[in-house]
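Annex B, item 7. Sequence and C-alpha cells for protein A, then protein B.
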Amino acid sequence: MIGTYFAIFIIVVIVLSGLFTVKQQTNAVIERFGKFTSIRGAGLQLKIPLIDKVAGRVSLRIQQLDVIVETKTKDDVFVHLKISVQFLIQKNHVYDAFYKLQNPHEQITAFIFDVVRAEVPKMILDDVFEKKEEIALAIQRDLKQAMLDYGYDIIKALVTDIDPDEKVKIAMNRINAAEREKIAAQHEGDAQRILIVERAKAEAESKRLQGKGIADQRREIARGLEESVDVLNRAGINSQEASALIVITQHYDTLQSIGSDTKSNLILLPNNPNAASNMLNDMVTSLVAANKVQESSHENETKKPKK
C-alpha cells in the first residue's frame, strides 16, 4: 500500500516537472539532450520530464544599452561620449539571437566603439557638439546592418552626453566669457559714442538758441532806444540831449539792479552829473572816428586806377 502511494507521488512529481510557465513578451528555448527542439511562447507550457529542459529565456521587449566611449577629435581633444542604444530581438529570429551570439551586449558595445572612433576623429570639438545627431545616425545605420544577421533590430541610437577633459571645458568657458566681454565692451563703446554725439548736438543747439536770444534781445533794445529818441524829439529835446538822458537812465537802472542783489560784486562807475554826457561824448567821438576811417578807406579804393 505504501509503495503504491510512493509510486503515485513520484508520477505526480514527474508530471509537474514537465509543466512550466513563460511570461508575456518572453520566449523559452527548449532543448532535448542538448539539441534545440522548440521555442515556446507566453503561458503554461509542457515539456517531456527528464528529457526536455528550458535552455534559456529570451525577452522580446525593447532593451537599452548605455556605453561610454573615449575618443579623440580632429583637433586632438579627448572626449567621453555616452551612447544609448535601444534594441529588441525579432520574434521570428529568436533562434539566431540565442545561439549565434555568446554575449550580445559585448558585441553591440564593440560595434559602437568601432563606429564612434571612426566618425569623431574626423570632426573638431565644436562639430562634435553640433553634429551629434549625425554621429547617432551613423551608429544606428552601421549597427543595425551588423546586428540584423543575429536577430537583433536596432530601434534608436542616441548620443546623450559629450564630456571633454576638465581643462578643455575650463578653456572653452574662458573663451566664451572673453567673447561676451568683447561684445559687451563694443556695445558700451557704441553707447558712449552716441551719448557724446547727442550731448554735442544738444550743446550746439543750446548755443544756437542762446545766440538767437541775445540777438533778439539786442534788436529789441535797439528798437526801444530808437522809439525813446523819437518820443523825446517830439517833446522838443534834441538827439544829443535825448541820448544823454537815455544813457543816464540806463546807468541808474544798472546801479539799482546791482544793489538789489546781495551776492553781486562791487563795481565803481563814474557818478558825477556830467558822467552820462562824458560817456555819450566818448561814444560819439569813437563812432565819428570810425566813420572817418571808413570813408577815407572808401575814397582810396575809388581813386586807384583801374587796370
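Protein B:
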Amino acid sequence: MNFLSHFYFDRDTTNCYHTLGTVLPDLLKNADKTIVIHPEKLVHPDTQINDIILGWRKHLLVDRFFHSSVFFITRSSELRKLLTPAVQGSPVKPFFLGHIALELILDNLLLTTDKVSVDDFYSHLRSCHLDTIKEFLNFSGLAETAKFFRFYDNFKKSRYLETYADTQQISYALKRICMRIWNDPFTIEHEGRMNAVLSAYRDGLQHNFMSIFKEIDLKLKAES
C-alpha cells in the first residue's frame, strides 16, 4: 500500500512517531532504494523510538495482508491486462504497473472521498523531531542518514501527496515511480492512454474500494 493507505489505519492517532513509523519503510525506499534495515524486532529505551518501531511493524503487517488479499491479486491483474496495450513498446513491465497503479488509485480514492486528510498526514510528519528520527535510523543500523533527510525535507515541503486528489495525476505519479528504474519509461502517447485506463478503472472501483480497508482492519484487530 502507498502512503495515504497506510495512514488510513491510524488516521485518528495523536502519536506522530507511530504515524511516521507506518510510512517510514516507503520513505526510506524512495530516498534510496539501496537502504535496507530491519528494526522490527528491536527495542529501544526511548518510548518515541519504540513508537516508530511499532509503526514500522504495522506497516509490514498491513502490506502482508494487502498483498495476499483476493482484492489485490484480482485488481492488480485486471489493471495489468488493461495497461498492457496502453504501454506497448515501453520497457516497464505491466505486472509492475498493475501493482503500483492500484496502490495510487486507492490513495486517490481515500482523498477524494474524504476518508483521510492530507493536512493531518503532513502535520504528523512535521511534529516529529529530526534528532529522534536520526537516533532511530542509527539504532537500526543506518549510519549515513544525510541522503534520507534531504529527501525527507523535500517530501514534507513539496506536499506531493496533495496531487493524488487529481485523477489525471495518477499516471504522472506512476511515471515518477518508474523513472527510478527506467530513464524514459513512457512516451506522451503512453501517458495519454494510461490516463484513460486509470481514470476509467478508478471510477469503476469507487463504489467498493473500501472493502479492502475493512478487510485489513478486521485482520489487524484479530492480531491485536
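Comment on protein B: The chain has one domain: 3-218.
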